[in-house]
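Protocol step 4 of 6: structure prediction from sequence.
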Amino acid sequence: MSLLINLAVMMQLMLLVIAIKMEVFKTREEIMENPINDLRSAIALLQRHEGQYLETDHPVDPNAELAGVYRHIGAGGTVKRPTRTGPAMMFNSVKGYPGSRILVGMHASRERAALLLGCEPSELAKHVGQAVKKPVAPVVVPASQAPCQEQVFYADDPDFDLRKLLPAPTNTPIDAGPFFCLGLVLASDPEDSSLTDVTIHRLCVQERDELSMFLAAGRHIEVFRKKAEEAGKPLPVTINMGLDPAIYIGACFEAPTTPFGYNELGVAGALRQQPVELVQGVAVKEKAIARAEIIIEGEVLPGVRVREDQHTNTGHAMPEFPGYCGEANPSLPVIKVKAVTMRNHAILQTLVGPGEEHTTLAGLPTEASIRNAVEEAIPGFLQNVYAHTAGGGKFLGILQVKKRQPSDEGRQGQAALIALATYSELKNIILVDEDVDIFDSDDILWAMTTRMQGDVSITNIPGIRGHQLDPSQSPDYSTSIRANGISCKTIFDCTVPWALKDRFERAPFMEVDPRPWAPELFTDKK
């Protein structure tokens, strides 16, 4: 009798697994029938799924109020509590900007990212990791096929004023100024135009036709800018906003996964199995993303610098992904705007600086890069990886490993070292076994509490370059830190020693299908 019961339970569980996989298959079919190639088609997909998208016609001020509202709706991440993960949100009535609309939170959920890419949330690292290996190069289309140029505004028009044309938000009342937070900058090597890069940068509106741009050291566009400046020439750029989510995710890959000369638009092409379309700019010699909502065309001026908070004197830039307001930079390059092009009834897309949206954008490429690197070195050992939201997708990595034999003992440390070498901005790594849910922080802390001893399970690696936005990485914090941006990397080994595995088996609950008892809780799995 018990055998029959066990077989029945197994059949129920198999049906449950099949039902979940069918949901993913249906999403993939949905994307195939209604391809996503821009922001609007992505929004249309979300509108067909309950709880993923919200619109409001209630007037909102882009100056701090919009971010303050979304903090409670769906910002999540490292935002000061109270906050939560919730739907993407469209504000249709922006004070001072009749006809404008602002979208926030498009990427602010791992589940939503999976929906938009047609895979399971737990498979995102693998899915994106496969795309980076097989990029599909972008193609150039004529202006007649580029919705981003439906409207054109030239900066040499005396009535042109970027500050009045686009409702760039501030996240807090102490921001340096209004920022474009999801401006994907596209530029090419001034010595070889075949080398193109795309990167999201912090862009602050300074004048009617000027932006300041924060460039982190080592970014490929910063290399392009320096080359142009050394030659005494401006660097043409386009700032692309309101894009297919796959483009933003692909653009967040970094070296060494995407080395110098790798065009990250190819990742989006691979994710969609169709090339990203580009169009020649109307005022600069650079390409723009043809199906973007808004394009700002301009030139990075050689030898010109500006203080980021020159108009506000707040001393702060904007809230960054670690959860703190970054310091205003005293000397940033300037982009001289030449033109703005946009779609009819354009959508300005933004994010809340330290929110869950940053975790998705930065974290998925982090996970994919680590997964690919560790799998290549130790095939089959790494089960999954999560760039935890507490680290903004950059600072904290959770690696799930499976020790299959005695000789696998110690390979967890090797996997951690590979991860640190692959993604230099990682600060802490937590290693867990295959029976720990890496997307459940309680489960991670349980493993840390019951499977780790501080004197033998923690490895410190001091004096390694980290990320400049971590406020603890400065000599003021510790005399052991030699310079700003230098960090102590830490590995927390919360895995069970191979020889003791039988002592750490979790309580063996009966496997049952709970749906007959609580069908209302599992309707999405049917």
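Step 5 (inspection) to follow. The chain has a mean pLDDT of 93.
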